[in-house]
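User: Batch of two.

Assistant: Item 1 of 2:
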Amino acid sequence: MSQRKVRIGIDVGGTFTHAVAIDSLSMELIGEVKVPTTHTAQEGVAKGIIDSLNILLEQSNISPDEVAFIAHSTTQATNALLEGDVAEVGIIGMAKGMEKIRAKSETNIPDIELAPGRFLKTHHRFIESTDGFTSELITKTIEELQSEGAKVIVAAESFSVDDPANELLVLDICAQKGIPATATHEISQLYGLKIRTRTAVINASMLVKMMETANMTEISVKKAGIKAPLMIMRSDGGVMDISQMRKRPILTMLSGPAAGVAAALMYAHISDGIFLEVGGTSTDISAIQNGKALIKTAEVGGHRVYLRTLDVRTIGIAGGSMVRVKNGKVEDVGPRSAHIAGLGYTSFSKPEDFTDSSLKTIQPKKGDPDDYIYIEGKNDAKAAITPTCASNLLGMVPPDNCALGNLETITLGFAPLAKALKADAKKAAEMIMDKAAPKAVKVVEQLLKEYKLDTSIIALIGGGGGAAAIVPYTAHLMKMKHTIAQNAAVISAIGVALAMVRDTIEKSVINPSSEDILKIRKEAEEAVHKMGAAPDTIEVFIEIDPQKNILRATATGSTELRARNLKDREMSLEKRIEQAAISLRVPEARVQSLGQTEYLEAFGAEVIENKLWGIYKKKNNSIRVIDREGIIRLQMTNSRVLQTTKDSLDTALRKLIDEHTGYGDAGRELPNIFLVSGAKIIDLSGLLELEKILSFAHAELARALPESPVVCLVNIR
């Protein structure tokens, strides 16, 4: 009997560190533990990571040899910036000839304000990297920067992305002297010396702290007998190996929220939706489209940096938010939470403590309003009334959810509140939710508008322990579908456990050729392979930004080939058609199979959409790509499908593109194109020219046999 393979994910939250173990084949949750996050321990957050790992292995009876994958998220990079807990940075600017005047200015990054009153302090020296550029001069310059207080060095030279030799020389000398250092070409391959240097400075400022934690954690993982390499969650929803984290800790910023989104993709199998991860104090909201999380360029201290993160919007409303009451009305809900005020939730309190309760007010922190309410019962028992309590009273919390509370206590607690509001208990609960949920509604509406998301296929997905407190009522107000993810309370840790190895390479290229595209594709593929991704699992997405002259390749892959024994999990064709019909909102008789591979099948139907109050009807051909387990992997409206083979791919793609190319103000507009091959969905929508699409498609299908089935899909813009 073959040994099981276990994937371990550890999510470091603000209050608790959660660890989970998942069976790599069945995707079943084997075990979960929760320990307090160890911010103040001598070992820092590493202690909580190590403690949770050891408890998980022992309680779940997991042998170290069974661990095939282990990763953790971290709040350390984000906290370091917010708290100003960073090292002073010495910058060595370099340039040759005519470039030196511009480069001297662009590498001289002033102190960066990270938060009010908290600064990242910098020191600058400039060297002309022509004649006289020697190891002795570099050494002297490093020592001068150290004497001014620099603890870490940044090497920044014009056009180092083309020739990094001088930056590498600085790194080599720093290594000999035992000084942490960063080179700008390691952080980004884009031109733009000022932004590249600024990004490297922020990255360097975290190196000392992050390396301490990384080293401590890696040693402990090895001591536990785990042979799998330690991975770290990135801000874009993937993971990287610890050697990459030692070079680029900046990539771990916002890795906590990214973990939840990774779970929405890999565990809840959301192809299109708005994901709301609801904690006790705040809610992180992000969007997923065509099976991908939406990404944005990050800013630090109001300055743009070369870092791409998930577009996560955070609001100060959640399951434990406290209620403010003023002049007989609900004034507001949040941002203070019961946790901050040192109070429990009425939902989880004992009813006998509140048989005779009264309404009281509190000022949770100095400077806060003094009209936050709580209830006081017998023997000085105190508890906050929260959205979790209100949602329970309104019957919106599912019976198996971790937010399910004691209705008897909630009813007792709402009695004095209802009296103060001159309403019954249900109305009081609605008044609370009518103040809380619109804060989520506003952000969801922003995402729908900004990314032009199709509301006919978008649903709200809740994760986090407080999901049932916020998501159902938000969906109710927006008249949208919603679901609460399975094991929502540990969804972020699950996301870490299931995350794919990921890397993104960006280059400044004007009008990239097919050769440029294939070259950057190979670089991205090799980068994730080097970090442990199995070659047959690697997928690469190419984007071309003609306005900024940026060519971008994002590669993802899994660390192991997962054996696909579908006999126990395969859904019948009838059930898959039923799934498609439910999603398409049409009768099953109207669903057609439009193309398939061994693992995936495209189902479609003509969907009639009412416009202008039903006066005008618009017909759309909508499709759902569903795998053999019944999971929807891709959904599109206004689309066309063509079944072909690898051998006939060129003809099929040319036909589809010719038929569905449009013309706008910017000229010819190709449709968005996706290919389905084997178990892969290949996204070609980032490419803007036919020949480049064909060239990249052939590279992606290089391992397929000539007669292998391929399904071509176009999404008409």
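Item 2 of 2:
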Amino acid sequence: MSQTINSKPALSFWQIWNMCFGFLGIQFGFALQNANVSRIFQTLGADVADIPILWIAAPLTGLIVQPIVGHYSDRTWNRLGRRRPYFLLGAVLTTLALLCMPNAPALWIAAGLLWIMDASINVSMEPFRAFVGDQLPPRQRPLGYAMQSFFIGIGAVVASLLPWLLTQWGVNNTPGPSGIPDTVKYAFYAGAAVLLGAVLWTVLSTREYPPEALKAFDESPSAPAAAIDTQAAPWRGGLWLAAGILGALLIGLMHGAHELYLLAAGAGVYGVLLLWLSDSHRHRASHQTAPSQHMVTQVMSDLYRMPDAMRRLAWVQFFSWFALFAMWIYTTAAVTQVHYGSTDTHSAAYNEGANWVGVLFAAYNGYAALAAVVIPLMVRRWGLRVSHLINVWLGAVALLSFLLIRDPHWLLLSMLGVGFAWASILSLPYALLSDNLPAQKMGVYMGIFNFFIVIPQLLAASVLGVLLKIFFHGQPIYALVLGGISLLVAGLCVLRVDEPTHKTMPAATTTEASP
């Protein structure tokens, strides 16, 4: 049977394996960052209440870097292809940051290295998301994103376990002259090698469709072409700008926490960008000029005119990633304080607890690798929406259970729910989204979608420390409770997203094909 014209060929299992393998290395670095950076900060003298603001570099960097990388990767084509140049650049920079982070001599240097590391990870990570949309037909995209989740799980298991494993092998786990335990140092060195090697595997073993082929294959709706509402946009921009200014004044008058200025600044900047966007479109309309090719104008226009499905998914992502960021920031402080009874970063109990957090993070990522195998079966039975609701609610129950469980070994059971939620968050929203995006804007829209991952992380970094001080006497365990509640809300929000329907594909589309 001949293949339908302009239908993108399905790839074989091993082709999908190769194109996703680089995520193993990216997640290796990402997991080392999540499991150990709070520990490094505390070891270098950071107070628990200051940890969120030190982490602010991570989401802020993603907010800036991912749409820029997405915009330019949509327009890139050279000997390495469209997305692969960004995989390679990000991997090299992340490798250097991983080698430097455990040797940071001071807290401010460690915070700066986190900024560099997260920016570099984002340079690689965003194009990997668009890569699946580029290479795979709609029916294979859930499998592609599930494969990425599988490698994320495997990489994170090993990376999170490394300090604990090195301790079992006799490596010193207490701070040495530099302040950072040798277990953490050697884990970061190993992570640098794995990250670079895995990304090189994908770069060298895969090929990409040229832009003209992608355009011919495009099965998604055309890019939004509606004009910017030059009356509503300035009104909305003015409101956001006024809210940012008023918020900053109130924080100053009430002597609020400095972290809250970040929220006010974000509202103000968004307002300014909306005003600028409106003015540029009004000027273009009055002079009848061609659409601007300026990167910021293009990104803001795409943000303003994003597909309706993306708007609804934004709320799902918002509540999901608020919960995840709360977990990443506060699990070490919560477990060492509640389950190991120590807040002294130089004590054996604290460092034993910090190592156990690495085991817990390894466990949820291991469960996520298994969940990545189960999730496609769930989707076939219940669809994308219901499957995602079930998985994030499992994660909600898991985070809430930290308040009740006192034996740290039983927390391994809690991590089962976190693992299913994590695997689902990394795959199903992207499967719901990619079918609604035009191929020529896959990269920039995946970057914009990252806004709804980054904004809740910025919110978490701004308010979690304040909330814990005011309502929970500074006890970090309640940050995990707030995360559990947030995941419950995320599950309800996904019910507002329409379930995609795919036309039946002819049998010939299941044959192997190379881009």
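Residues 232-298 form one domain.
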